[in-house]
Amino acid sequence: MKPKALFNWSSGKDSALALYKILQEDEYEVETLLTSINKEFQRISMHGVHVLLLEQQASLLGIPLTKMELPKEPSMEEYQEIMNRTMAEIQSQGITHSIFGDIFLEDLRQYREKQLNSIGMQAVFPLWKQDTSDLIQEFLKLGFKTIVTCVNGTYLDKSFAGRIIDQQFLDDLPKNVDPCGENGEFHTFTFDGPLFKSPVQFEIGETVKKTYPKPKSKPEDKEEEYIFWFCDLIPK
């Protein structure tokens, strides 16, 4: 029997490609998708996509969805408590492996492995250390379609939000931006491709600016903000 696994589903391109590879290799039984949700706004954490579109995705992929609802600004203690409760429920289903779409962030991998090892589970990284330029080209050649839902204003301006990733988008990226946005430069929502029974239906809404305070490293530093641009996707 194949080991049972959960797939950590962000709704974006890296998740879609990692899931595609896992299903092609057929070494694990993917029992559920796990996605973190902002409970107050009912949107995917970081990506800003409405939960209704996430549910459409899961339905069209044909894989059950587990939503981990988090408060607007959870403390580390609150986050850990909710995560522990969620993972206990997942483990009760006989799930032993947890699959991620991470590519090259070493500290993030170490954190995930440490957390999972502490409860007797194993982490799996199907895209690990692969060239991100090659990965995004493979993603497009397979026929996946994804739209940019959030951009980090430190790296990209408002015009990149709401664009569908194609070769022109990649050509327009500044040289300091990873083509997969692996450093958090942008986030996406994948709405079509070889895994989907049919495309996810949505309309493109307005793009809004949100700011978050930067932590001060020194008392004399001036107050600064992180700027993010979110393109709203409206479920049909």
Automatic annotation (TrEMBL):
One of its GO terms (molecular function) is ATP binding. Keywords: ATP-binding, Nucleotide-binding. It comes from the Bacteria. CDD domains: AANH_PF0828-like. Residues 7-202 form the Diphthamide synthase domain. InterPro entries: Diphthami_syn_dom, DPH6/MJ0570, Rossmann-like_a/b/a_fold. NCBIfam families: MJ0570_dom (TIGR00290). This is ATP-binding protein. It comes from Chryseobacterium contaminans.
